[in-house]
Amino acid sequence: MSITDSPSAEGDMIRLRKPGGKIAGNRLSQILDELREHPDTGFGRPEPLKYGKRGYWSRQITVKHRLVYQIRKEEITVLIVQAFGRYMDKQPLSYDSFCRSTFI
């Protein structure tokens, strides 16, 4: 599978890989490598999200940070939408909302 990231997720991953974030950066790299082969099993305790976030999955990077992504089997793609912090609690996840929030 190929991996695509939203503009906001790209910024999140850069923040996690900054100096001082060695553990988070290493775990993120390990998760990204595994996503290509097994997007719904493996490292980081993958779990499907519920309620307004259905269709998305989460993996634990650290206690504080989660990787949130969508598996698009028809496109053979994993879309990463968030990597810094926990879930975006007050708004439903959608690729369009992530793109709009980046440019507003």
UniProtKB/TrEMBL annotation:
Signal peptide: none annotated. The keyword Hydrolase applies. Gene3D superfamilies: RelE-like. Belongs to the YoeB family. PANTHER family: TOXIN YOEB (PTHR38039:SF1). This is Putative mRNA interferase YoeB. GO terms for molecular function: endonuclease activity; hydrolase activity. Keywords: Endonuclease, Hydrolase, Nuclease, Toxin-antitoxin system. One of its GO terms (biological process) is RNA catabolic process.
